[in-house]
Amino acid sequence: MRNEVDVEAYLRGNGIEDFFGDEEDELDEEVAGKMRSTLEEYLSVKDFNEVVLCIEELEAVSDRWRHFVHIALAFSLEEKQAVRRGVAELLVQLFTSEKISSEDIETAVEIILDDYDDLRVDIPRLAVNLSELWTPLFAKEALSVQWLSEACSHLVDSGRAADVLDALLSSLEAQDGREALVNWWKKQTDVDAVWTQMSPAEDGKPKDERLAKWKLVLQ
């Protein structure tokens, strides 16, 4: 396990020390360290049941699974692609086994999106890295495009919201092919509004050229 100083720095650097902005919901450093160690062990041996056992043992921790999701996401953002794939695989398993909910994932991701501009300074490929983490979750309908458009509303003017959606759609197409992407898109709700929510509209089409092309593909 990381030493106390490392854990404290990790918490502060990833916004985990004030996860919900409420003092009574702050995550104890020792607990965060245990969660981090549990994640690292999973990435080494891929023992899903051990993850469940370790996190469930933290009965006194409010919203322990929600905290774990955020730690997993924050930990893997700057790691190698293989780590993000491993974390994505774990989150899908946790979702399909009903250990975590869509709300748990959304809350954890929203904290990262709120700090998007700051994180991007150190992680220029942040949109791509995020897509590697959450594409399988979108494919499993744990997350929705409508939710994403709302969560990225503060990134529209800067064009970062378009970066995020473009990276997601590119990743979904690379993973499952264009036909599967089109079918997936048809299952989403309020898709017509998504284009203009993610990029200011001009003459009824997204201003961002990448999103304008995606709209033609997915219509």
UniProtKB/TrEMBL annotation:
The keyword Secreted does not apply. Belongs to the eukaryotic initiation factor 4G family. PANTHER family: EUKARYOTIC TRANSLATION INITIATION FACTOR 4 GAMMA, EUKARYOTIC TRANSLATION INITIATION FACTOR 4 GAMMA 2. InterPro entries: ARM-type_fold, Initiation_fac_eIF4g_MI. Residues 30-153 form the MI domain. This is MI domain-containing protein. GO terms for molecular function: mRNA binding; translation initiation factor activity. One of its GO terms (cellular component) is eukaryotic translation initiation factor 4F complex. It holds the Pfam family MA3. Keywords: Initiation factor, Protein biosynthesis. The keyword Protein biosynthesis applies. SUPFAM superfamilies: ARM repeat.
